[in-house]
Specification:
Elements: H1 2-86, E1 92-95, E2 98-101, H2 102-115, E3 126-131, E4 136-141, E5 145-150
Antiparallel strand pairs: 1-2, 3-4, 4-5
């Protein structure tokens, strides 16, 4: 029996050594895992930072591009408005031997309106009907009053 005990002791020692080796390997694996996990986390953080940096740059570029576009639109609108202001319209009525400009007809209307004792501030709507065959223009004021002006 003593042999069994010695063999048992040897087996137990072998098991302990093997267990120690396994524990050492597990510790090494855990350390490697921790190191690998840290490395993975660091890599992920770097990747996210790398992704965010271009996104921030792109956002900044977009903002700059949007500002430029807005500025261009505003400039275009201002330029279009300036061009629209530059254009002047002139209406001239010609019939047989008569030639009268729109401005002159409006001035005649305003003079007749004042002779009636009325003020220009009363006018909210003004429509002119030209009747060249009658040699006159009928101004309808506020859809109520009619004033006839001769050509």
């Amino acid at each position: 029996m003593a042999t069994k005990t010695t063999e048992t002791k040897k087996a137990e020692e072998a098991v302990k050594v093997t267990a120690a080796k396994v524990e050492a390997e597990e510790k090494a694996t855990k350390t490697e895992t921790k190191t690998t996990a840290k490395a993975v986390k660091e890599a992920e953080v770097k990747e996210e930072a790398a992704k965010e940096a271009p996104a921030k740059k792109t956002a900044a570029k977009k903002t700059t591009a949007e500002k430029k576009t807005t500025t261009k639109k505003t400039t275009t609108r201002k330029t279009a408005a300036a061009k629209a202001k530059e254009v002047t319209a002139k209406v001239v009525l010609q019939y047989q031997h008569i030639e009268v400009e729109e401005v002159e007809l409006l001035n005649r209307f305003k003079a007749d309106w004042a002779k009636m004792g009325r003020e220009e501030s009363e006018i909210t709507d003004l429509v002119a009907y030209v009747k060249p065959e009658e040699y006159c223009v009928y101004f309808v004021v506020n859809n109520i009053d009619t004033v006839r002006v001769f050509l």
